[in-house]
Design brief:
The chain is α+β, with helices and mostly antiparallel strands. 35% of the residues lie in helices and 26% in strands. α1 crosses α2 and α1 packs antiparallel against α3.
Length: 239
């Protein structure tokens, strides 16, 4: 049986993107890859032109004088920028698209922890704080500076909206594997939306310097099937 392993957590010396689990995250990674291809191609082309002009004096006069070359290096960059701008705007509009979510989660940034509110349940308003677990209390296999005492539990294959704000200073709610990043600004409500395609644990951190313990307010999202999410809601009500 073929096993599929996903890289949802940070790894030592990792420089690539994590394996995203949302459609919006996939669009962001694809846009990055396409733009990076253009950037590498243009870098090689310009380096080759500079090398040719430096070692071959005949090239130099064609690159510095003449109306034709001026027109060429004005039109070509403009076309390249249009080629990059169109998919960029498409991704931006997709990120800001407003849909009718099944579930709304409110995330509030504090110095230095997160609190969460589930307000869609009539008889069961779920609210809890989420603090980082100290290194001395970690279990085997846990991630240092990333584990929390209370995880955010969300259902998979469901439209989810997260309303984000701050209680004291500016924070930033960021989960790379979900393609989510939004500032938590006091007195203002920002929102992001996503749909998680597979179950698992997704780690994030505050990405806005917010004080001395900025590095110690992680985010952990646990994505589960809908029946397990309903059981979790019932258990929260009983507690």
């Amino acid at each position: 049986m073929n096993m599929v392993f996903y890289l949802d957590t940070p790894e030592f010396s990792g420089i690539s993107f994590p394996d995203v689990a949302t459609p919006l995250g996939e669009q962001l990674v694809n846009f990055h890859d396409n733009v990076m291809f253009v950037v590498v191609f243009m870098t090689i082309l310009v380096a080759w032109i500079l090398y040719s002009a430096f070692y071959n004096k005949n090239y130099y006069k064609y690159l510095t004088h003449g109306t034709s070359i001026e027109v060429i290096w004005t039109i070509i960059p403009a076309v390249i920028l249009v080629f990059i701008a169109i998919p960029s705007l498409q991704v931006l509009y997709c990120l800001d698209e407003v849909t009718d979510p099944f579930l709304t989660l409110k995330a509030i940034g504090h110095q230095w922890y997160w609190s969460y509110e589930y307000g869609d349940f009539k008889d069961n308003f779920i609210e809890f704080d989420s603090y980082m677990i100290n290194s001395s209390d970690l279990n085997k296999g846990d991630f240092r500076l990333l584990e929390v005492d209370n995880r955010v539990v969300l259902p998979i294959n469901t439209e989810i909206r997260v309303i984000i704000t701050g209680d004291d200073v500016i924070h930033s709610f960021t989960v790379p594997s979900l393609g989510v990043k939004a500032d938590a600004v006091p007195g203002r409500l920002n929102q992001v939306r996503f749909m998680i395609k597979r179950g698992g644990l997704y780690y994030g951190q505050c990405s806005e310097i917010c004080g001395s313990d900025h590095s110690f307010m992680p985010i952990v999202v646990e994505a589960v099937p809908m029946p397990d999410f309903i059981k979790w809601v019932v258990n929260q009500k009983e507690e």
